[in-house]
C-alpha cells in the first residue's frame, strides 16, 4: 500500500507539470495584453498610464521575455529547490544563489500583492459558504433519495422528484435577483440584507446576541453573519439537490431488491433497520466516488452567487485574474486546484480499498 | 447490544456541558468588556476633541502674531495661481479652506452625527497611498489625506490647505540660457560611454555602433534638463501652517513633505504611473521646520499643482515600513484629513471599510461621525439597498434615472442631481491614420471631417443618453477657459459629409451602395470598442446605420479589454471608440495629441501628426502666465477642431440619487459639493454611535 501511495504521489509531479504547462501556454498565446489597472472603474482610461505601467510590469515580472523562459522562471519560483530571487533597491528582481528555498506562488501584477495573500483572503469566504451548503445538500439529498426509493412510485417519490428537478432547472442568476427583489426589499419583505457578509457597523457589535447597556436588542456579530448567509446559501443549495438525490435513489433501489435485504426482512428485522442498516450502507459506495469529485469543487466558489450578493470569494478572484491575464494568479489557481483534485482522487481510490475488501493495491 | 448509558458517559456529558457553559460565559464576559470599552472610547474622543480645539486656538493666535495680526476677510477673487512670478503671500493667507464648512455649521439646523454610506461596484483592493491603483482607493484617501494645496470647488483655483502660503520664483531665463548653451556644446564620445544605456557588456562592434548612433543624434534635451548641475526652471517655496496635526497627534512638518516625495521617487515603491507625473521635480529641500522648497526641472504650468497637490504622508508612520511592505500591506493609511481609519494599519480587503471622524482635525470638523463604504457588485442589489436606506448614494444610467424619477415613493425620500463635473471626461472615436507604415483613408483630413458630419451625435444623445450628454466639440470641458467658445460641435449633416468625401475622391461608380476609392478600395471599416457594455453596443448600431446612409460599411468589433489594449499598442485597428477620464482641471494635450506620442505604445495611437499643434502644446506647457496659456490652448483647440483626429462624441452628465435626509447638498463648479459639507438635522439622523 505504501509503495502504491508513493508511486501515485510521484506521478503527480509530471501530471501537474502538464496541467500548468497547458494553462500557461493557452494563456500566453491567447490574444490580449496585460490589462490590469489600465482602465478605471468608470471604463475610462487615464492618458499616459498604460505605457508606463506596461514598462513597469515588463521589468518587474519579466513579461517581455520569451514565453518558454517565463514558464521556466515560474517553475523555478514554485519549486523548493532552485535559484532564489530578491528585489533590489530599484524594485526589480535579482537572482540569488542556487539551493533550497521556500516555494513562492509569486505576485499578482493586476493587484500588486502576493498570490498567497489573495488566496488566503478569498478561500475562507468560499469555504464558509460551501461548508454550510454541502452538509445541507447531502442531508436533504440522502433523505429524499432514500425515502423516494423506499416509497417508489408513491406520492413522495413523484412530488420530491418533480420538485427537485424543477428547482434544478431554475437559473441561479434569476433566483438570486428575485430573492433580493422580494425578500430584501423594503417594498415587499425586508427579511434579509441585500448583500455582503456583514452589516455596516458589524465591527462594533458584540459577538453574541443580547441586550445592550441601554436595553436595546442587538443581534450581535455571529447572528448578523448568519443572517447575511441565508440568501446566498439558498441560491447555492437549491440546484444541487436533484443530482445527488436521484443518485441516492437509484443506488438504494438497487440494494433494496438484493437478496441480503430480503433475508434481513425474512428474519424479522424492523423496516427501519433493514433500510438504514442494510440497504443504505451498501448504497453509499457510489456516493464516495461522487464525493471525491465534489471536494475540489468546494474550493471553486460560485461566480454568479458571489456577484449577486457582493461576496469576494474564489470565483470572482479567478475570473478577474483571467480577464487581467494575471499570469501568477491564474497559474497558482491551476496549481492549487490541480493538486487538491489529484489528492482527492487518490484518497477516493484508497477509500475503495477500505470499503471493499476485494480491492487491493499491493 | 449492551449499549447502556453508564457513569462514564454521564461524566463525559457533564464535562462537555461544563466546557460549553464556560465558553459561553467567557464570551459573555468579552461582550461586557466590549461595551465598557466602547463607552471609554467615546469619552476619549470627547477629550481629544476638546484638546484639538484648544490647539487650534493657540496656533491661530501664533499665526496671527507671526503675520502681524493681518487677517483679510473674504477669500477668493482675482487670484490667478501659477501665473505670476511675484510672491503671492498676502492673498493666500486670507484664504480659509474651511470657509464652506463654517458656513454649513452656521445653519440653525446643523447637527453633528449620523453616517454617510457609499457603495462601490467592485471591491477595494487597497487603501495604502501611492500604491493604490483603483479609483475607489483614492476616493477613500481624499478624506484621510491632505496636500499642501487643494482646488477650490467653486473657483477651481489652487488654494492653500496644509500650506499657509507659497512663493514662486521664476528662473526660466537662466534655465533657458543654460539649456541653450549645453545644447550647443557638441556631444563627446566619453560622455556617450558614460550613458546608462551604453552596452558595457556588448561587443566592440555594438559599442561602436551605439557611439556612432548617439553622436549622430546629438545631445538630448531631456538629459540636459535632468542633469543635477542644471539650474531649475522654477522654485516653489511653501510655508506650512502651524496648526495641522496628523490624526495620531504628531504635527505636520517640512520633514513629512520631503519624506513623501522621497518615498514617491523610490523606484522600489510600486507607483510607476504616479511617479511619471513627478518626473519634472528636481529636488525637494527643507529650509526650516515649516518651510519647504521644490526645484522644478523645466517650466511647467502644472508644477504648483503637482508639488502642492500631493497628499503629505506622516514620516514617523510610514518610515517604519520597507518599500516592499508598503507595496504589499493593503491598509496603511494615516494622514491629517478630517477622517481617519480606526486602525491605520490593520485593514484588509473584505473587511468593512469605515472612516471615523478625526477628532484631532486641525480645521473645521465635518458633521458626519463616519463615512462608510460598502461593496455591492450587483446593480439590482445596489438599487434595492438604496431603496432600503442601507446606502445613501445611487449612481444611475440615463434610462434608469428617468425610470426612477417616475417612482414617486423613491423621489419623495431622496434627492436627485444631474450635473456636469470638472474635470470632465469625454468619449471619442479615434480614426487611425497610419497602419502598417501606410497612410490609411483617414490620413485625409476631409475624410475625418466627413465622418464627424456623418455621426448622429445629437440623436444618440437624445435617444440613448436621454439628453444627459452633449456632443463634445473638443478635448476640453465646455465652459472652461481652455475651450474656445466660438467652436460648436459639427451637426449631423449627411450632405456635407458626402460632399467632403466626394472631394477626397470617394464615389460609388459600381452603384452597389458602398463608396470606392482608387487607392483605398471599398469604404469598409471595423469599429473596435470594449465589449460588455449595453450602451456601447447600442451606440455602435446607431453609427452603423448612419454611416450606411453615406455608403460606408461599419463592422462592429467588440473586444475584451485586454485584447483591445493589445490592438491599441500595435495600432492595429481602423477606428476605435474609448473614453478618457477626467484628469486634471486643466487638461494637458501632450499625451494624446503630440506627435512624440505617435509611436508604439503611445497614447497618440491614431498617429496624428501636426507640427503646428506640437509647438502650441509645448509652448502652452511652458507658459506660466495663465491668460497667455489659455490663449495657446484655445489655438490648439481650434486646430484639433479643424483637423478632427478624433470624432469627439460626448461630455456626459453624472446622474446621482442621494438620500433625502442630507442638507446643504448643492452643485458647485466641480460637480456636487463634497459630502464633508453636508449634514443631517438632529431629528432626521438615522445612525447613532
What report would you give on this structure?
The complex is a heterodimer of chains A (362) and B (689). Chain A has helices at 2-29, 49-61, 67-78, 115-150, 155-168, 172-183, 220-238, 241-256, 259-266, 271-283, 285-298, 303-308, 314-323, 327-355, and strands at 81-87, 93-100, 107-108, 113-114, 210-211, 217-218. With 362 residues, chain A is mainly alpha-helical. In chain A, the strands form 3 sheets. Chain A has a two-stranded antiparallel sheet. In chain A, a hairpin with a 5-residue loop joins strand 1 and strand 2 (93-100). In chain A, helix 6 packs across helix 7. The longest helix of chain A has 36 residues, at 115-150. Chain A is globular, with a radius of gyration of 26 Å. The mean pLDDT of chain A is 83. Chain B is an alpha+beta fold and 689 residues long. Chain B has 24 helices and 25 strands. In chain B, the strands form 8 sheets. Chain B has a 6-stranded mixed beta sheet with strand order 16-22-13-21-19-20. Mean pLDDT of chain B is 86; it is low at 71-91.
Helix content of chain B: 25-40%
Order of strands, main sheet of chain B, comes to 16-22-13-21-19-20
- Rounded mean pLDDT of chain A is 83
Assembly state: heterodimer
Total DSSP helices of chain B: 24
Number of helices of chain A: 14
Unreliable stretches of chain B: 71-91
Q: What does the main sheet of chain B amount to?
A: 6 strands, mixed
Chain-averaged pLDDT of chain B:
86
Write the element-wise H/E pattern of chain A from the N-terminal end onward. HHHEEEEHHHEEHHHHHHHH
Structural class, judged by helices and strands of chain A? Answer: mainly alpha
**Proportion of residues in helical segments of chain A:** 55-70%
- N-to-C CA distance of chain A: 6 Å
Work out the strand percent of chain B. 15-25%
Query: Main β-sheet of chain A, in a few words?
Result: 2 strands, antiparallel
The tally of strands of chain B reads: 25
Amino acid at each position: 500500500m505504501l509503495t502504491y501511495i508513493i508511486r501515485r504521489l510521484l506521478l503527480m509531479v509530471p501530471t501537474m507539470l502538464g496541467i500548468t504547462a497547458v494553462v500557461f501556454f493557452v494563456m500566453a498565446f491567447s490574444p490580449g495584453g496585460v490589462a490590469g489597472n489600465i482602465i478605471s472603474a468608470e471604463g475610462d482610461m487615464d492618458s499616459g498610464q498604460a505605457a508606463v505601467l506596461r514598462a513597469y510590469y515588463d521589468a518587474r515580472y519579466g513579461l517581455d521575455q520569451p514565453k518558454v523562459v517565463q514558464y521556466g522562471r515560474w517553475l523555478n519560483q514554485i519549486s523548493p529547490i532552485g535559484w532564489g530571487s530578491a528585489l533590489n533597491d530599484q524594485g526589480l528582481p535579482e537572482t540569488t544563489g542556487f539551493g533550497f528555498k521556500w516555494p513562492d506562488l509569486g505576485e499578482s501584477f493586476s493587484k500588486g500583492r502576493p498570490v498567497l495573500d489573495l488566496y488566503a483572503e478569498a478561500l475562507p469566504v468560499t469555504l464558509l459558504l460551501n461548508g454550510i451548503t454541502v452538509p445541507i445538500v447531502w442531508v436533504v439529498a440522502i433523505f429524499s433519495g432514500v425515502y423516494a426509493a423506499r416509497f417508489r412510485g408513491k406520492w413522495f417519490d413523484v412530488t420530491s422528484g418533480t420538485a427537485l428537478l424543477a428547482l434544478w432547472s431554475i437559473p441561479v442568476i434569476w433566483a438570486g435577483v428575485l430573492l433580493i427583489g422580494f425578500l430584501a426589499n423594503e417594498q415587499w419583505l425586508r427579511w434579509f440584507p441585500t448583500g455582503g457578509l456583514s452589516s455596516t457597523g458589524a465591527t462594533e457589535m458584540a459577538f453574541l446576541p443580547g441586550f445592550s447597556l441601554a436595553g436595546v436588542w442587538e443581534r450581535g456579530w455571529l447572528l448578523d453573519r448568519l443572517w447575511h448567509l441565508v440568501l446566498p446559501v439558498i441560491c447555492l443549495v437549491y440546484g444541487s439537490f436533484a443530482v445527488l438525490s436521484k443518485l441516492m435513489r437509484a443506488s438504494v433501489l438497487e440494494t433494496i431488491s438484493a437478496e441480503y435485504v430480503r433475508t434481513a426482512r425474512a428474519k424479522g428485522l424492523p423496516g427501519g433497520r433493514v433500510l438504514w442498516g442494510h440497504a443504505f450502507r451498501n448504497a453509499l459506495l457510489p456516493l464516495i466516488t461522487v464525493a471525491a469529485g465534489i471536494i475540489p469543487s468546494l474550493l471553486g466558489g460560485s461566480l454568479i452567487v458571489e456577484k449577486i450578493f457582493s461576496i469576494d470569494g474564489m470565483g470572482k478572484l479567478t475570473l478577474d485574474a483571467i480577464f487581467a491575464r494575471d499570469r501568477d494568479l491564474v497559474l497558482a489557481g491551476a496549481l492549487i486546484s490541480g493538486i487538491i483534485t489529484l489528492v482527492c482522487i487518490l484518497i477516493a481510490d484508497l477509500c475503495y480499498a477500505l470499503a471493499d475488501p476485494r480491492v487491493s493495491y499491493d | 447490544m449492551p449499549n447502556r448509558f453508564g457513569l462514564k458517559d454521564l461524566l463525559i456529558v457533564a464535562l462537555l456541558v461544563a466546557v460549553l457553559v464556560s465558553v459561553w460565559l467567557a464570551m459573555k464576559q468579552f461582550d461586557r468588556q466590549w461595551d465598557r470599552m466602547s463607552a471609554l472610547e467615546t469619552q476619549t474622543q470627547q477629550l481629544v476633541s476638546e484638546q484639538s480645539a484648544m490647539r487650534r486656538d493657540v496656533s491661530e493666535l501664533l499665526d496671527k502674531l507671526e503675520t502681524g495680526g493681518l487677517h483679510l476677510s473674504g477669500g477668493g477673487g482675482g487670484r490667478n495661481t501659477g501665473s505670476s512670478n511675484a510672491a503671492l503671500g498676502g492673498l493666500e493667507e486670507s484664504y480659509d479652506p474651511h470657509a464652506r464648512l463654517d458656513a454649513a455649521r452656521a445653519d440653525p439646523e446643523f447637527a453633528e452625527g449620523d453616517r454617510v454610506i457609499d457603495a462601490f461596484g467592485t471591491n477595494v483592493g487597497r487603501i495604502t497611498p501611492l500604491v493604490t491603483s483603483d479609483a475607489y482607493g483614492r476616493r477613500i484617501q481624499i478624506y484621510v489625506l491632505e496636500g499642501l494645496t487643494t482646488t477650490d470647488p467653486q473657483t477651481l483655483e489652487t488654494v492653500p490647505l496644509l500650506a499657509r502660503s507659497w512663493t514662486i520664483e521664476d528662473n526660466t531665463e537662466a534655465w533657458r540660457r543654460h539649456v541653450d548653451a549645453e545644447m550647443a556644446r557638441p556631444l563627446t564620445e566619453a560622455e556617450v560611454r558614460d550613458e546608462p544605456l551604453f552596452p558595457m557588456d556588448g561587443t566592440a562592434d555594438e559599442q561602436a555602433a551605439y557611439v556612432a548612433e548617439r553622436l549622430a543624434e546629438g545631445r538630448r534635451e531631456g538629459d540636459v534638463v535632468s542633469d543635477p548641475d542644471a539650474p531649475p526652471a522654477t522654485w516653489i517655496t511653501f510655508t506650512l501652517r502651524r496648526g495641522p496635526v496628523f490624526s495620531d497627534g504628531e504635527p505636520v512638518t517640512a520633514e513629512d513633505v520631503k519624506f513623501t516625495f522621497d518615498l514617491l521617487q523610490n523606484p522600489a515603491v510600486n507607483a510607476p504611473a504616479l511617479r511619471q507625473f513627478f518626473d519634472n521635480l528636481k529636488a525637494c529641500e527643507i529650509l526650516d521646520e515649516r518651510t519647504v522648497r521644490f526645484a522644478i526641472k523645466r517650466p511647467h504650468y502644472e508644477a504648483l499643482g503637482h508639488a502642492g497637490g500631493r497628499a503629505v504622508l506622516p514620516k514617523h508612520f510610514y518610515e517604519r515600513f520597507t518599500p516592499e511592505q508598503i507595496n504589499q500591506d493593503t491598509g496603511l493609511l494615516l494622514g491629517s484629513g478630517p477622517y481617519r481609519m480606526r486602525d491605520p494599519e490593520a485593514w484588509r480587503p473584505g473587511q468593512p471599510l469605515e472612516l471615523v471622524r478625526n477628532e484631532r482635525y486641525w480645521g473645521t470638523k465635518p458633521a458626519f461621525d463616519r463615512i462608510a463604504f460598502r461593496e455591492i457588485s450587483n446593480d439590482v442589489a445596489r438599487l434595492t439597498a438604496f431603496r432600503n436606506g442601507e446606502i445613501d448614494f445611487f449612481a444611475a444610467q440615463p434610462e434608469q434615472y428617468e425610470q426612477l424619477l417616475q417612482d414617486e415613493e423613491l423621489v419623495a425620500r431622496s434627492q436627485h442631481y444631474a450635473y456636469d463635473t470638472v474635470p470632465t471626461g469625454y468619449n471619442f472615436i479615434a480614426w487611425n491614420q497610419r497602419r502598417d507604415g501606410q497612410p490609411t483613408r483617414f490620413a485625409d483630413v476631409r475624410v475625418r471631417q466627413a465622418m464627424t458630419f456623418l455621426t448622429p451625435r445629437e440623436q444618440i444623445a437624445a435617444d440613448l443618453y436621454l439628453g444627459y450628454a452633449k456632443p463634445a466639440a473638443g478635448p476640453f470641458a465646455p465652459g472652461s477657459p481652455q475651450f474656445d467658445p466660438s467652436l460648436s460641435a459639427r451637426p449631423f449633416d449627411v450632405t456635407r459629409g458626402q460632399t467632403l468625401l466626394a472631394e477626397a475622391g470617394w464615389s460609388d461608380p459600381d452603384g452597389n451602395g458602398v463608396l470606392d476609392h482608387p487607392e483605398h478600395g471599398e469604404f469598409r471599416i471595423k469599429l473596435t470598442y470594449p465589449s460588455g457594455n449595453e450602451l456601447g453596443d447600442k451606440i455602435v448600431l446607431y453609427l452603423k446605420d448612419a454611416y450606411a446612409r453615406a455608403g460606408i460599411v461599419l463592422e462592429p468589433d467588440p473586444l475584451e479589454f485586454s485584447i483591445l489594449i493589445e490592438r491599441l499598442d500595435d495600432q492595429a485597428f481602423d477606428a476605435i471608440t474609448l473614453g478618457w477620464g477626467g484628469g486634471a482641471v486643466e487638461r494637458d494635450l501632450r499625451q494624446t495629441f503630440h506627435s512624440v506620442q505617435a509611436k508604439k505604445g503611445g497614447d497618440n495611437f491614431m498617429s496624428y501628426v501636426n507640427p503646428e499643434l506640437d509647438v502650441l502644446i509645448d509652448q502652452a506647457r511652458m507658459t506660466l502666465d495663465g491668460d497667455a496659456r489659455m490663449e495657446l490652448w484655445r489655438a490648439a483647440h481650434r486646430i484639433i477642431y479643424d483637423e478632427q483626429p478624433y470624432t469627439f462624441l460626448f461630455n456626459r452628465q453624472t446622474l446621482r440619487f442621494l438620500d433625502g435626509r442630507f442638507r446643504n447638498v448643492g452643485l458647485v463648479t466641480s460637480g456636487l459639493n463634497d459630502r464633508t459639507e453636508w449634514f443631517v438635522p438632529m431629528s432626521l439622523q438615522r445612525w447613532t454611535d
